[in-house]
Amino acid sequence: MATLLRSLTLCLALALTLTACGGDGESGTVPEVANTTVAAAVESAKAEGAAVIDVRTPEEYAEGHVEGATNIDVQATDFDDRVAELDRDTTYVVYCRSGNRSAAAAERMREAGLTVVDGGSLEDMAAAGYPVG
Q1: How many distinct structural domains can be found in the chain?
Q2: What pLDDT, on a 0 to 100 scale, did the predictor assign at position 14?
Q3: Chain centroid to CA 78: how far?
Q4: DSSP codes, 42-107
Q5: Containing domain of residue 78, as a range?
Q6: Each residue of 21-36: pLDDT tens digit?
Q7: What does the pLDDT read at residue 44?
Q8: In whole angstroms, how far apart are CA 123 and each of 39, 87, 102, 132?
Q9: Is residue 14 in a domain?
Q10: Is residue 60 part of a domain?
Q11: In b/e form, how buried is each residue of 92-121, taking b as 16+ CB within 10 angstroms?
């Protein structure tokens, strides 16, 4: 009897574990919603005349950037000092190569009291209608 009870308990635990690990097949929908939200925020900021900041390295910036963008390298030691000099009444859109550095820069800039939209990548900015040169 104890062996049967132990076997049933193990089977039940295994079934619950496998059920909990199963997916619903719709995991790809969340990033699309997030990207749509970011795109809408970038387009809204563009319509309001937000200032654009490229947070890539100066070398990356020289290879091509959004026209009119200011380069403030998020990895530079003076990033926070340069952010402190920015106008608090302006909205800023930040971007980088892939979106990782722009997310970090946006967070640091918000902590400094700025209004910031994370524009993601240079490709995302071009898709939102910003001219790239």
Answers
A1: 1
A2: 46
A3: 22
A4: HHHHHHTT-EEEE-S-HHHHHH--BTTPEE--TTSTTHHHHHHTS-TTSEEEEEESSSHHHHHHHH
A5: 49-128
A6: 555 555 544 334 344 5
A7: 81
A8: 11, 26, 13, 9
A9: no
A10: yes
A11: bbbbbbebebbbbbbebbeeeebebbbbbb
CA gap 58, 81 in Å, rounded: 17
Q: What pLDDT is recorded for position 25?
A: 52
Active-site residue 96, yes or no? yes
pLDDT (tens digit, 9 = 90+) per residue, 52-81? 999 999 999 999 999 999 999 999 999 999
Q: What is the CATH number of the domain that holds 103?
A: 3.40.250.10
Q: Is residue 10 part of a domain?
A: no
**Could you tell me the pLDDT band of residue 104, with boundaries at 50, 70 and 90?**
very high
The verdict on residue 63 lying in a domain is yes
pLDDT in tens, 8-21: 444 444 454 545 55
Contact 93, 51 (CB under 8 A): yes
Active-site residue among 93, 96, 117, 128? 96
Q: What is the pTM of this model?
A: 0.70
DSSP string, 1-44: -HHHHHHHHHHHHHHHHHHHH---S-TTHHHHHHHHHHHHHHHH
